[in-house]
Amino acid sequence: MPVQYDDVVAWVKAFASAIEENKAYLTQLDSAIGDADHGTNMQRGFQAAVQKLEESPGDDIGAALKGVGMTLVSKIGGAGGPLYGTFFMQMGTALAGKSELEADDWATALEAGVEGVQTRGKAELEEATMLDALLPAVQALKESVGAGSSLEAALVKATEAAQGGMKATIPLIARKGRASYLGERSVGHQDPGATSSYLLMKAASDVLATKKAS
Amino acid sequence: MPVQYDDVVAWVKAFASAIEENKAYLTQLDSAIGDADHGTNMQRGFQAAVQKLEESPGDDIGAALKGVGMTLVSKIGGAGGPLYGTFFMQMGTALAGKSELEADDWATALEAGVEGVQTRGKAELEEATMLDALLPAVQALKESVGAGSSLEAALVKATEAAQGGMKATIPLIARKGRASYLGERSVGHQDPGATSSYLLMKAASDVLATKKAS
Amino acid sequence: MKKLINNPEDVVPDALQGMQAAHGDVLRVMIDPHYLCRADAPVQGKVALVSGGGSGHEPMHGGFVGPGMLDAACPGEVFTSPTPDQMLEATKAVDGGAGVLHIVKNYTGDVLNFEMAADLAREENIEVEAVVIDDDVAVQDSLYTAGRRGVGATVLAEKVCGGAAEEKRSLKEVADLCRKVNGNGRSMGMALTSCIVPAAGAPTFDLGEDEMEIGIGIHGEPGRERISLAPAREVVERLAGPIVEDLSLQQGDNVLAFVNSMGGTPLIELYIVFNELKKLLSGRGVNIARNLIGPYITSLEMAGCSITLLKLDDELTRLWDAPVSTPGLTWGA
Amino acid sequence: MKKLINNPEDVVPDALQGMQAAHGDVLRVMIDPHYLCRADAPVQGKVALVSGGGSGHEPMHGGFVGPGMLDAACPGEVFTSPTPDQMLEATKAVDGGAGVLHIVKNYTGDVLNFEMAADLAREENIEVEAVVIDDDVAVQDSLYTAGRRGVGATVLAEKVCGGAAEEKRSLKEVADLCRKVNGNGRSMGMALTSCIVPAAGAPTFDLGEDEMEIGIGIHGEPGRERISLAPAREVVERLAGPIVEDLSLQQGDNVLAFVNSMGGTPLIELYIVFNELKKLLSGRGVNIARNLIGPYITSLEMAGCSITLLKLDDELTRLWDAPVSTPGLTWGA
Ligand SMILES: Nc1ncnc2c1ncn2[C@@H]1O[C@H](COP(=O)(O)OP(=O)(O)O)[C@@H](O)[C@H]1O
Ligand SMILES: Nc1ncnc2c1ncn2[C@@H]1O[C@H](COP(=O)(O)OP(=O)(O)O)[C@@H](O)[C@H]1O
Ligand SMILES: [Mg+2]
Ligand SMILES: [Mg+2]
Ligand SMILES: [Mg+2]
Ligand SMILES: [Mg+2]
């Protein structure tokens, strides 16, 4: 069963709710190694993105995601704004004109989104950033989809991979973003951006699981 | 046995020691209703006064006390500087040229000192200031001396009166000095200046008691 | 006690040395007795302005020494009025033959010490006038008490009188102007946290995590009342309300609004306070014609603010705008 | 959380309204997207300077808008870099045909957002150069990390480049000068207490009663090391030592010494720090030719200070001395 426009909207909304719920937690993670604003920033941005989606319904998934990305860029600020904004804009570009998505559309789009983050932020794996959640997630998704899994099953795998990547930031020395100023003292802390990125993947798999169940 | 020059010096030194010992206590009293400096101020002033006395020995009690007063004025600052300074300067003026004091010299000089404080600070009894210790002390001293007591016995009475006056500041509404800004909220606090003035009388009676004992 | 100091006893001399090192071009710091004076003092034929008070309120007063404001300032120990010998030496150093105005904040210590100093200066044939500033509406004004404290209006009086003195106005005129600023200026302050006097080493007062003190003095003297934390809007009402009333501000009046940090409150919060003040005054038709926003009369690291309003007329406005060139206030020069 | 605010969400808009109310004569505050610009913008034929960053560092940057310094500033949420649309609108509003310099502090967020904004502005045919300030020696400089943070030198760069822009120098020249300030300026900061981000409501970090953090960032990002409280003298050695080394300051060099309050530290302590800094530099034959002492780049109410040294030559000194007329810095005008 292909993914519809409404499912994509549901994904963004589910992520927005997850951010809302985890706002204090994300900010607390950011206090330890950053500047105590990641939760507030993400919440501000995704509240606006959801509002934007509600105000301008349609059926072009690509256009909708691009709109989300642009809203994030103009509402979040900080490192998160350009990075999450680029992620959604690049996904949107990859899905331009589509109103239904198959599993490999998802894989392609997610990869494009993550590549966008990498190009913009110039970070690599194991520098303790959101990429530590996103890159393993893309790889898991591609592998699962390539092996013929359903999107829903693949997203479960991707979410697990994101969670693993998120946890793997704990022992790392941060090399990018604000946490990098701490050098060795960044060891032992989970990266806030990797945590929000894990929640992003989890929102996707939760939404598709609900869809299947219903 | 009349009071000698050395006894007067011993009095100032004994008071300086008492201030040293009670510095934190006086400052704490001043924190509650003032600006947390009475102990530090008095200590700075009397340390300098003792040094002055040691540097220029003599036998003119009046001149010595005047010197103490001038040192206090130029070292203490705050309300305490002019008030304690005037007290010692007026005592000194009253005792100009004397090298020995009888009980009624003391009574006259103390009265002159306290009058000086009153003229300078324009405060009256029961306004919660040092005068609440000093005025009863003068009165007790005069009465005792008038009734023929020895100076040492009279100073014991004066010290008791000072202590009573000091404690009597607790339920008063302060009307002069910094504590007056509190209005009703000054009730329940012992006045720091009345406390140092009690210590001043106590130093005098202690020194004379020791002299007699020896 | 968390402070950037060496020893508690050295706070005042170390800071004075720092001021000399930083501002030797505009002022001279004299040690023992301590005072700061204009580098070009005495200015012949100009009324000289001398102020002073306990340290811990920086930039007041030392930071206001320079052309267009004070000729000299006498710093006492932290929160302790300076002594008459400091004031006498400062007065002698800056007297340019036209007399000296002592601007005194109304605290028993400041008043008594300045009185003694004025007497001594007069004995040396220097003409001295003293004006006592008492603008703090938090304190009950009464003949039978020490009266209102001198706070924010002092900064404004020093600036306005400094401008008038530069115009070579007479001692009487400058003193009258000082009384006029005092008559037209009112203040009130509040604290979110206590300051710590270095020599005491502990907070002067204890405030609960959810409390603030309204009507606080600049030495951490307790205020009118202790209340629960409240939004800036309400704080401004509590501070500005009594001021507006006491000054009987009317529709159409022009004021200078001075929002001051007690030391630990940063500028971003002062702008929020100023915004609320502007709304409150606009609501009553009162126009803020001039403003001053920042830490100008502090109470060590105390967090909190004070509001001062000065009713302006053309003369006060012109003198406020006159050039000033001091470490703490500079414009037009 | 003890702050003079209304609601945590309203901190930035309330403060901006306060700035407009207070400084409407020199600047305009634009809302949605937020930016502040000179009241007389755009100035034809003059290179325009735009900076910006998270709020909470007041007076930087908004307080530095005005003749002789910035043409526009973009305030983000507290400690959050502003967004490209703010920067684009500000850039368009101040472009006077001679190009626009973006002065960017080196934080991932600031850099990325300004990059996007510059791309957008170039699409609209505005010539934009960006210079990234990275002067914080507390942070290891490395190609493989985010690199050094931009801190105190930003204030100095904005002043110096503002002076050059007023002289109608070209975009390339002004940008080169900005790089020169960055090359010759180094900073390091420390904290005695943490700040509280209003929306977070709790201290960003916990410091024990007897601890301080050396090498702190201006957003409360933890620093190089946490040590026991130490006298001002030692604090200055720890901050200024690495700066002097990194700049290879020599006997006979002239520097501008900037002693900055992190927000909660009062002026009296800054003078004590300045005094120690002067002694340290004198001991190495380095001359403090200019100084700036006060709260200019703050971190909300954090107690602590930072030291910035800028090696001066005649050009930098002249441009530092050039007239400036902003809410935060005023002289010579
Ligand atoms: N160069 C980068 N590439 C990818 N992610 C990054 C980069 N820099 C920072 N991040 C991510 O951004 C997160 C911080 O986001 P946020 O707190 O919103 O921004 P800021 O650091 O500007 O306050 C970090 O936890 C990290 O995951
Ligand atoms: N007008 C006055 N007359 C007599 N004593 C006074 C007067 N004003 C203040 N005092 C005394 O001075 C004491 C405070 O001294 P101190 O703390 O040294 O000065 P300051 O109030 O200037 O800080 C008060 O406790 C009170 O006893
Ligand atoms: Mg952050
Ligand atoms: Mg006191
Ligand atoms: Mg005092
Ligand atoms: Mg941030």
Q: From the 3D structure, determine the CATH topology of the largest domain in chain C.
A: Rossmann fold
Total of helices of chain C: 8
Strand order of the largest sheet of chain A: 1-2
Radius of gyration of chain C, rounded?
19 Å
Task: Identify the quaternary structure here.
Answer: heterotetramer
Look at the structure and name the CATH superfamily of the largest domain in chain C.
Dihydroxyacetone kinase, domain 1
Low-confidence stretches of chain A: none
Determine the strand fraction of chain A and express it as a percent band: under 5%
Give the overall average pLDDT of chain C: 96
Mind telling me which CATH architecture of the largest domain in chain C this is? 3-Layer(aba) Sandwich
Summarize the entry for a quick read.
The complex is a heterotetramer, with two copies of chain A (214 residues) and two copies of chain C (333 residues). Chain A has 214 residues and is mainly α.
